[in-house]
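User: Is it possible to get a 3D structure for a protein together with its bound compound? The compound here is flavin mononucleotide. I've pasted both below.
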Amino acid sequence: MADLSINLAGIKSPNPFWVASAPPSNTAYQCHRAFEAGWGGVVWKTIGDPIVNVSSRYSAIHSGTSRMVGFNNIELISDRSPETNFREIRDCKRAWPDRALVASLMTDTREHWHDYLKRSADAGADGVELNFGCPHGMCERGMGSAVGQNPEVIETIVSWVMEVAEIPVIVKLTPNITSIVHAARAARKGGANAISLINTINSITQVNLETFCPEPYVAGKSTHGGYCGPAVKPIALNMVHECAADPGVGIPISGIGGISNWRDAAEFIALGSTGVQVCTAIMHYGFRIVEDMIDGLSAYLDGKGMASVNELCGRAVHSINKWETLNLNYKRVASIDYDTCIGCNLCYIACEDGAHQAIDLVPSTGRGLGPGRLPGKPVPQINEEHCVGCNLCSIVCPVEACLTMVDRDTGKPPMSWQQYQERLANGEMAPIPAHP
Ligand SMILES: Cc1cc2nc3c(=O)[nH]c(=O)nc-3n(C[C@H](O)[C@H](O)[C@H](O)COP(=O)(O)O)c2cc1C
Ligand code: SF4
Ligand code: SF4
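Assistant: Yes, that's possible. Here is the predicted structure of the complex:
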């Protein structure tokens, strides 16, 4: 069986699945429950000067029958005292010595950072995570994303922290920034041992058209919140990749954002994360989701003949390149499996109105009739000459593996945009004709 253990900048845990700093990591009670369920690590709910929260605090985007595909909150950091939080961290660490317990911190002055670092180490935390990410409430007080959006401030604060750090320091980055790489490089320059990303994304999920007030509703007003959950995974994956691929960053990554199952986690790891953190999926389904995550990742690694999670780490990083390096002579076209096609014609209308008019509706002439199809009803047929291989029809097709994309040999050697430009400049070829 594959070795699931990880070592993130000196913080060891028996598996790569950590609870992110958030409501599920608020108390010792929850931390014990998380470890009992099998989580490899917990990043404690951010500790700082205790705050006062508002009621209500959350809103969400649902899609069809899927609840909480995007989740928004206006909650702040811990509303419990640092004394209570550090005491409970000490108790949890004593009870679970083999798990990773990380104290998430947010404060302001150099003295306060030094104080919190010392108290975290004294409590037995395996590491600290500096929360430079909260997009609401704390940034108005000069903390959270107010720090994370300014690389110079990141570097300064990390360097203060590193003056006294006896345990590994992770810097948690905000996605509410033009380039995450600049923030990540600043964390590295300040001396951070690792980065974690992403925190939540600035958001307003919906406006009530009767009251003209968005949710979450607080006595007739609302405020922008932080977005997370499955909807943010693509944004998080891209940012993780940007950091993993940048030589100026070069420190381990803890991946966060929309992770709900082992497959999501494996994707983050393949794009360069050493381990992952989860919040929304736990708030939705509870701590026990980790059981399937452990089983699924383990079976996947075994199936791939990988002996450890480390072997997966970064495997996909180099397959993502600049657009101008892609092969212009590669061709893919849509292909329909008529045995499973249900004749809904969604592919036809999508291509007709939203793409390249490369699907014709033709009378069914004896080809297989999938479930629900009526004899004589027109069937979609791909016109390969017009198909540009955009993938749209295969994305809208509701039947798994019915409309797939297949390779077509163009007989031409690979040629990137860069090479095309060089050949044009050298007069080696004529411009590729524009589409009619
Ligand atoms: C209600 C709520 C409270 C959060 N509180 C914190 C916090 O105190 N500190 C922190 O670093 N991140 C906090 N986060 C952000 C999460 O740790 C995580 O970065 C984010 O939710 C993305 O992960 P997810 O898509 O798995 O939820 C909070 C998120 C939510 C939903
Ligand atoms: S891949 Fe795009 S262009 Fe080709 S048939 Fe499908 S929607 Fe049309
Ligand atoms: S969308 Fe899929 S199932 Fe529907 S007609 Fe097209 S190929 Fe058939």
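The mean pLDDT is 94. DSSP finds 14 helices and 20 strands in the chain.
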